[in-house]
Please model this.
Amino acid sequence: MEFSADAGPPALVVGRPESYTLYASPGVSATITVTFLATAASHTVKTFNLTNGADTFLEVFPNATCTGQQVTGSPDDNGTDTNDYSRCGTKANPPCPANNDTNLASSITFTATARDHCIRVSRSPQSPPSAGFYGAFDLQVTSP
Model:
């Protein structure tokens, strides 16, 4: 199950976080377009400030349509944590992670090209039972 985003700005500005509220809706995700002006510049896309049970799955495409091959490092689900938490529990291995504002967040660092990029955020297919089908998150693109 994926999410649909509240109506909001269609484009994300590098360096400025935007907030999104997600609702369970099959086949729909939050899709945001970012235009990069610099070539070969490193950028990081991240979700953070997760609330209400959000668990994000992040994808970045080097086009405005969210189709085709993704950028290097995409997709990302919970950063460097590669555990599948869909069947976790107090007596299971792995145990469920704390459902806080960072544990279930995602981040991708990649080299952007001078063009539109599509960022898609959906509910993680490996969400722990403690994560809800709804939730909110902030999304930000930064460049060092």
User: Anything to note?
Assistant: Residues 1-9 have pLDDT under 50 and may be disordered. The radius of gyration is 15 Å. Residues 25 and 100 are 23 Å apart (CA to CA).
